[in-house]
Design brief:
Length: 153
C-alpha cells in the first residue's frame, strides 16, 4: 500500500546528511552555549574587555569634545571626557552576566536583563532578575595631546 507522505531510504539518507551538515556549520559558529557572549581576559576578570589596549584618535569621535558625554569607541569600551585633558574609560560589559551594554541617552543599558548604568558606570537599576550587581569596570586611559589620541586598556 503506497504512502503519500512517506519517503524512501535514499530521501531519508539525503535529508539526514543535510541535517548533519547543518549541525556541523552551527557548531562552528558558536561556543555551544546559549546566553550572553563569553568574555575572558586571560582567565581574569570577565568584566574587562578582551585584547590589549586600543588607541583611538579624538578627531574620529567628535562627541569626545563634550565633557560628560558617554562615547562608545568600540571593542567593548566607552570613554567619557571629564575635563580639558582628562578622560575616564569604562568597560561596556554588564557585570551581571557579561552582556555588551548599549550606550543610550548618555548611559549604559543592558539588553539582556535591563540593567542601567550611569555615565560614570555606577548602577542606576539592577537586572530584571533581582540580582545585585557591581558598577561597570573603569579602564585606564592615557591621553596623548600631541598626537590627539587616547589609549584605553
Amino acid at each position: 500500500m503506497p504512502c503519500s507522505d512517506c519517503f524512501n531510504r535514499r530521501d531519508f539518507l539525503a535529508r539526514s546528511a543535510l541535517a548533519a551538515a547543518a549541525l556541523v556549520v552551527l557548531d562552528a559558529c558558536g561556543d555551544g552555549q546559549i546566553g550572553p557572549p563569553l568574555h575572558a581576559s586571560g582567565g581574569g576578570d570577565p568584566n574587562i574587555p578582551i585584547g590589549g589596549p586600543i588607541t583611538v584618535r579624538l578627531a574620529d569621535f567628535a562627541a569626545l569634545a563634550t565633557v560628560g558625554k558617554v562615547v562608545d569607541i568600540g571593542h567593548e569600551r566607552a570613554v567619557v571626557r571629564t575635563g580639558d585633558t582628562t578622560f575616564v574609560g569604562l568597560s561596556r560589559i554588564c557585570t551581571h552576566e557579561q552582556c555588551d551594554t548599549d550606550v543610550v541617552n548618555n548611559r549604559f543599558q543592558c539588553p539582556c536583563h535591563g540593567s542601567i548604568f550611569a555615565a560614570d558606570g555606577s548602577v542606576v537599576r539592577g537586572p530584571d532578575t533581582g540580582a545585585s550587581i557591581t558598577p561597570l569596570r573603569q579602564l585606564n586611559v592615557a591621553f596623548d595631546s600631541a598626537a590627539g589620541t587616547l589609549t584605553v586598556a
